[in-house]
Structure formats: C-alpha cells, structure tokens
Design a protein that fits this description.
- There is one protein chain.
- This protein has 166 residues and is an alpha+beta fold.
- A hairpin with a 4-residue loop joins strand 1 and strand 2.
- It is elongated.
C-alpha cells in the first residue's frame, strides 16, 4: 500500500470536496472528520472508511462513480517497493522430493537459505499432495540452471520432514 504524506492526503480531500455535487454542510463536515491524523496515514482503516462513505455518496448522486474508480487506485495502490525484490526470497533454490516409489518431484523455491526453502515448500499445496516422501534434497539455483552433477546443499531425511503425507 502506498503511504500518502499529510500534504498528499490534504490535496486528496480537497479534490474530493471539489467534486462533490450539491453536498450539504453535513456531508462536508463528515468528509472532514474522515481525514486521518498524521499517526494514521500509514494505516488502511481510514482508506476503507473514506471509500465506503464515497460509495454511499455515489449511490445518492453526490459524486461521480467514475471518479471513485480512479480514486480507488490512489487509495489502495501497492507501494512500488513491494514490487521490488523481496530480501527474504533473494536466493534461488531448487528442491527434489524423492518418494518411496522412486518418483522425483522438482520445485523452484526462492528463499533465504536451504532450510527456509524447504519451509517455503511445505506451504505449497502440491507438496502436501505428494504421498510417501522419503527425502528432500535442496540445491543451489533454479532447476534450469542446475548442473547434472550438482550435489545438494542439504538433504532432509524422512525423520526430519514436516507436514508430509504418510
């Protein structure tokens, strides 16, 4: 979520007020009461309250619904930083799952280290659907980059597995 500073928030509320059609003083007062305090700017609650209030005004014809769509992109836009590389997923790992039927399932898992790669894999539905897991091998790099003779960084034996189907 993009954090708006106090000036951007004030400009946003001024823009909303200028677009209100035939608004009474009660509506303007309520809109003014929805302005967040400086300490609330990073929170999402005030955005939902404002959005709900404006949707109600749209239903009564006090504000254009097309404007609300563009306003939603401002209120609920994702922060540019959140689309950048996530430090917790900065390293590439590939994982081989060996089953008791000698089948091998391969996954690419970005994470911080081999143990975290395995922990991230356990959150996937596909992992939970694999029966009879005997061992987990974690390799450096994604599958497409892995050399044929690569050795695993870490091997998890059956006794070390978490959340596996029998």
């Amino acid at each position: 979520m993009t954090v708006l500073n106090q000036q951007q928030t004030n400009d946003l509320f001024c823009d909303i007020e200028s677009r209100l059609l035939g608004a009474s003083s009660v509506i303007l007062e309520y809109l003014n009461n929805l302005k967040p305090a400086c300490s609330e700017l990073g929170q999402i609650e005030w955005r939902y309250r404002l959005s709900g209030f404006l949707e109600g005004l749209s239903l009564t014809g006090h504000i254009d619904s097309l404007y609300l769509e563009s306003l939603a992109s401002i209120l609920f836009a994702r922060d540019v930083k959140s689309r950048e590389v996530r430090p917790g997923r900065a390293h590439a790992f590939s994982i081989d799952i060996i089953t008791d039927q000698s089948k091998v399932y391969r996954f690419d898992v970005p994470s911080t280290n081999p143990l975290d790669a395995y922990a991230q894999l356990t959150k996937r539905t596909a992992y939970n659907a694999i029966p009879g897991i005997e061992a987990i091998e974690v390799y450096a790099g994604f599958r497409k980059d892995r050399a044929k003779e690569a050795q695993p960084l870490r091997v998890f034996a059956k006794s070390e597995l978490i959340y596996s189907n029998p």
